[in-house]
Amino acid sequence: MAILLIFLLGVGNFAMHKAVLESRHPLLGQLPWFVHLLGGRIGLVSEFLVLLAALLLVANEHSGWGIAYLAYSLFNALAAWLIITRRL
């Protein structure tokens, strides 16, 4: 059950990350040069690696990482909302 929840949170994190990239927020232009490699896809690769690590840890019965990934997802949701609605 925890693996399914983390997978669904990961799908949401990817969607939020993509929405932020497509928002063309001025803040994105201030990021370092290496973030802009491959059109910002480096961030999606790092998002995938975080999701993969969380899935592997929870699959090996380290359930605390599921709660950590939930907290990470909530933080991502808040940050994406702030950026997309231009409140930041």
Descriptors for this entry?
69% helix; elongated; 88 residues; mainly alpha
Give a quick rundown of the structure.
This protein is mainly α and 88 residues long. The chain has one domain (2-24, 34-84). Helix content is 69%, strand content 0%.
Order of helices and strands, N to C?
A: HHH
What percent of residues are in strands? under 5%
What structural class should be given to the helix and strand makeup?
mainly alpha
Overall geometry? elongated
Give the distance, in angstroms, between the N- and C-terminal Cα atoms: 35 Å
Number of domain units: 1
What's the alpha carbon Rg, rounded to whole Å? 14 Å
Count the helices. How many?
3
Description:
The protein has 88 residues and is mainly alpha-helical. The chain has one domain. Helices cover 69% and strands 0% of the residues. It contains three helices and no strands. It is elongated and about 40 Å long. The relative contact order is 0.19.
Q: Strands, helices and their partners?
A:
Blueprint: H1 2-22, H2 41-59, H3 64-84
